[in-house]
Amino acid sequence: MTNGRLKTRGPRQGGQAIRRALAVLRTLAVGGERGVPLAEVVQATSLARPTVHRIVHVLIEEGIVERSERTGNYVVGRQVPELALARPSRSPLMVAAEPHLAAASAQLGDTLFLTVRTGLDTLCVARRIGSYPIQVLSIEVGVRRPLGVSSAGVAILAAMPTAEARKIVLANETRFAAYRTDTATVLGQIQLARRRGYNLRDVGLVQGTKSLSAWIRTPDGQPAAAITLSAMRNRLGPRRAIEVADVLVSAARAIEAAAAKG
Questions:
Q1: Which of 145, 144, 109 minimizes the C-alpha distance to 128?
Q2: For the chain, what is the largest distance between any 2 Cα atoms, rounded to a whole number of angstroms?
Q3: How many separate helices (H) and strands (E) can be counted in the chain?
Q4: 20 to 30 Å CA-CA from 56: which of 169, 208, 218, 246?
Q5: What is the distance between the alpha carbons of residues 154 and 234, in angstroms, rounded to a whole number?
């Protein structure tokens, strides 16, 4: 401090290395139990192979990453969920969403998902199975995907300012190929969702299905999550899609109001 004022500092020393390590860790989280080969980590992070190799092996030494003896892929280490036990309470958003997720699922009969944004990814944090005889269980709780890949991810991006959404899409560009999509397709989906006020995906992640998502904002207006219904294609024809959209958008607004009350 000089003359009673804080001295302006540049980027924190070591910050870049930490961000690179976190980028690697988030990429591994997408792979779940299957894990991710080193080449895919390199592609997803756009880091040099020697850099990724060095980061991965430091994380292995610290117990944060493990290498599968069977596949040779790298996976998030078992120490990570142990660290998460230090803060076991659910987020205010999840608490606020629970009754509305249950009510909407009971009303519509199909499976509903709650997906949150985490960095450049989406993370499924809750799933409510409906009563209709045929349910589409397209994603498990705990599955992480790049923003823009899933119906929920597109909905969250559609709730952002155009420039911010485009920046995220471009940051995830190299990761889209693994999900058989591309930047132009994702940007087009975002524009359409923004016009509709919700996202309707005619081709779901599971063949023969469709998905519809409504975004959820935090009390300060930031897009933070989405509520999604997945169903067989014949369950989401034009007329019912409008009905489902009304229910999901209403549920999303109710969740926002409940979260704002704390």
A1: 109
A2: 72
A3: 10, 8
A4: 169
A5: 22
